[in-house]
């Protein structure tokens, strides 16, 4: 296994992920769970944000205390399923700018097809959290990272929910400088490129399409 992967195994994340995987979980609950998990994961993904000291006054006296030093963040969602992760992250880092990369997987070739890209204009100055719940073959994340790099993004973290071993190895090989944060690593892909056991089609479950 490549070594640039961090598994977030907090009990709350694991509990909610189990509910999310369950096929009897409907779209409303799926959306809520994905949102909550994304927020919990963002807590870990932002752990290395730099702090600076400021002076404030409490009701009792002066204090030197620490605040985030103003590092700029961008949350970039891979459409569609990444949309389900942005709000949870923004609740923790409301000043982050949001971008969207539209990709879908060709069902025959499993290769990503681009259809949309709108990024913050100052993406070169921002640390990027790229979000998509599923890392299967890794083709979509690879394409999104290349697009971000073409637009000048320098520091990218990939945040997913379930990653296959194959997807992790592919991204680690293509982009060794991009750490992957995931809640679970699943064993394999089936003949249609779906993660097994996974959770099925994340976009369809999120939006109730099929
Ligand atoms: C899913 C998922 C990822 C991609 C992962 O999107 O949300 O973007 O597949 O597969 P990969 O690692 O093999 O590229 P999908 O193509 O189903 O599009 P959708 O979210 O619009 O349904
Ligand atoms: N995309 C999904 O939504 N689920 C998978 O298991 C693989 C790709």
Report on the architecture of this protein.
This protein has 210 residues and is of the alpha/beta class. It has a single domain (5-207), classed as Rossmann fold (3-Layer(aba) Sandwich). It has helices at residues 11-21, 27-45, 83-92, 139-150, 165-174, 202-207, and strands at residues 5-7, 51-57, 62-68, 73-79, 97-105, 112-118, 127-131, 134-135, 155-159, 162-164, 180-182, 184-186, 188-189, 195-196. Strands 1-11-9-7-4-5-6 form a seven-stranded mixed sheet, with helices on both faces. Strands 8-10-12 form a three-stranded parallel sheet. Helix 1 (11-21) runs antiparallel to helix 2 and helix 2 packs across helix 3. The two termini are 33 Å apart. It binds 1-O-pyrophosphono-5-O-phosphono-alpha-D-ribofuranose and uracil. Uracil binds at residues 134, 136, 193-195, 198, 201-203. This is Uracil phosphoribosyltransferase. It catalyses: UMP + diphosphate = 5-phospho-alpha-D-ribose 1-diphosphate + uracil. Its cofactor is Mg(2+).
């Amino acid at each position: 296994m490549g070594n640039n992967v961090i598994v977030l195994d907090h009990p709350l994340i694991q509990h909610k992920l189990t509910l999310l995987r369950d096929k009897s979980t409907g779209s409303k609950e799926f959306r809520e769970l994905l949102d909550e998990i994304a927020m919990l994961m963002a807590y870990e993904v932002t752990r290395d944000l730099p702090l600076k000291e400021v002076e404030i006054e409490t009701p009792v006296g002066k204090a030197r205390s620490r605040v985030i030093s103003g590092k700029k963040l961008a949350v970039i969602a891979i459409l569609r399923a990444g949309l389900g992760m942005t709000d949870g992250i923004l609740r923790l880092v409301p000043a982050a700018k949001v971008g969207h990369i539209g990709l879908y997987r060709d069902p025959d070739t499993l290769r990503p097809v681009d259809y949309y890209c709108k990024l913050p204009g100052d993406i070169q100055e921002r640390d990027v959290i790229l979000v998509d719940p599923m890392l299967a073959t890794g083709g979509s994340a690879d394409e999104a990272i290349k697009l971000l790099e073409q637009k000048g993004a320098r520091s990218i973290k990939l945040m997913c929910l379930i990653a296959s071993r194959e997807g992790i190895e592919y991204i680690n090989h293509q982009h060794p400088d991009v750490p992957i944060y995931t809640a679970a690593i699943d064993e394999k892909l089936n003949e249609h490129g779906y993660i097994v056991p996974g959770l099925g089609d994340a976009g369809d479950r999120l939006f109730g399409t099929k």
